């Protein structure tokens, strides 16, 4: 009966005793834990200092509970029969200077169910640690590499981890790109035996003490999809476009106009069907008096989305365009 209740709890997502809860005074012989079986990577980029984690699973909204990262501190993936507190508690230990290996060791020492856990950690010095309990559902695997670790359980086959390791090591580009390649390789090798549902990627800056809302470089989730990794790849590209647009805004704020315009132009090239990028590039040009350059861009954005015409009329009130009726007429006539 006890084992039946444990299985019911698993199916309905009830969590076990949190490692953060030292006041728990009852004994458990069963395991009633959330089964977020999955494959993941945690990694550190020694060139930029960036830290990150990426994951895919046949489980709804896997990114919300499996991957954790903090600027200049570390990254964690906690999975299999998941104990979520490995994420925040692991980061807390690494924030105080504990290595990934020692942090994981300390958390495992407090856990009565290490045999069903799978956890990967990386610290801000590139130290990595990984644990896979012997009761993690096969096929399970983990591999530590230089500055990263990959881990997986309930896979179609044991080739998932080697494929992820190889892809991460061979791929060029920033940390997000290399982790994305690892996920794609893991899925290509077979992935989760149950199929696909959700995926996520989280990358943070290498500067310790940077607030999380400033230090998050990418925080993307696909909660429920037939092709979560394909969609995550698309979202990563969109995120790069908007990051470049934001860089343009920041450059404009400090008066670096030419550099800002390069950033806006880059964003357009990255995503030529993104009318948002085209419109704000046009508005910036018009605002600094380069109206003739702006008109073809305004015309293009108006064709893509007629509502931009209405928005143009509202920009002078926010000091984003000069309050000049002749200028407004010229812009609205663009076609």
The number of domains is 2
CATH topology (level 3) name of the largest domain: Glutamine Phosphoribosylpyrophosphate, subunit 1, domain 1
CATH-level-4 superfamily name of the largest domain: Aminohydrolase, N-terminal nucleophile (Ntn) domain
- The average pLDDT score comes to 90
- What's the arrangement of strands in the largest beta sheet? 8-9-2-3-10-11
CATH class of the largest domain: Alpha Beta
Instruction: Return residue spans where pLDDT drops below 50 for at least 5 consecutive residues.
Output: 1-18, 20-32
Beta percentage is 15-25%
* Major sheet attributes: 6 strands, antiparallel
Distance between the termini: 73 Å
- What fraction, in percent, of the residue positions are helical? 40-55%
Question: Quick one: how many beta strands?
Answer: 11
Q: What is the 3D form?
A: elongated
Please identify the structural class as seen in this structure. alpha+beta
CATH A-level architecture of the largest domain = 4-Layer Sandwich
Gyration radius over CA? 24 Å
The multimeric state of the shown protein is single chain
The number of distinct helices, counting runs of at least 4 residues, comes to 13
């Amino acid at each position: 009966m006890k084992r039946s209740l444990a299985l019911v709890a698993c199916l309905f997502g009830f969590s076990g005793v949190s490692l953060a809860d030292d006041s728990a005074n009852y004994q458990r012989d069963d395991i009633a834990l959330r089964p977020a079986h999955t494959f993941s990577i945690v990694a550190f980029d020694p060139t930029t200092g960036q830290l990150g984690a990426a994951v895919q699973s046949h489980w709804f909204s896997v990114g919300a509970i499996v991957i954790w990262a903090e600027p200049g501190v570390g990254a964690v993936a906690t999975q299999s029969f998941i104990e979520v507190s490995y994420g925040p508690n692991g980061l807390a230990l690494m924030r105080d200077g504990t290595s990934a290996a020692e942090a994981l060791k300390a958390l495992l020492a407090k856990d009565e169910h290490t045999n069903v856990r799978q956890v990967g950690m990386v610290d801000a010095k590139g130290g990595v640690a990984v644990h896979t309990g012997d009761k993690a559902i096969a096929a399970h695997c983990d591999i530590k590499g230089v500055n990263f670790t990959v881990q997986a359980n309930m896979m179609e086959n044991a080739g998932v981890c080697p494929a992820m390791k190889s892809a991460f090591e061979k791929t060029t580009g920033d940390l997000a790109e290399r982790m994305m390649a690892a996920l794609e390789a893991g899925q290509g090798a077979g992935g989760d035996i149950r199929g696909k549902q959700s995926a996520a990627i989280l990358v943070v800056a290498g500067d310790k003490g940077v607030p999380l809302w400033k230090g998050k470089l990418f925080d993307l989730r696909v909660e429920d999809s037939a092709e979560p990794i394909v969609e995550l790849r698309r979202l990563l590209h969109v995120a790069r476009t908007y990051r470049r647009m934001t860089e343009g805004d920041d450059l404009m704020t400090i008066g670096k106009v030419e550099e800002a315009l390069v950033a806006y132009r880059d964003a357009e090239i990255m995503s030529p069907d993104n009318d948002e990028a085209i419109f704000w590039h046009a508005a910036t040009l018009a605002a600094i008096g380069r109206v003739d350059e702006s008109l073809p861009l305004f015309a293009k954005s108006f064709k893509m989305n007629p509502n931009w015409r209405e928005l143009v009329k509202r920009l002078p009130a926010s000091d984003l365009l000069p309050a000049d009726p002749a200028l407004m007429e010229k812009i609205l006539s663009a076609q």
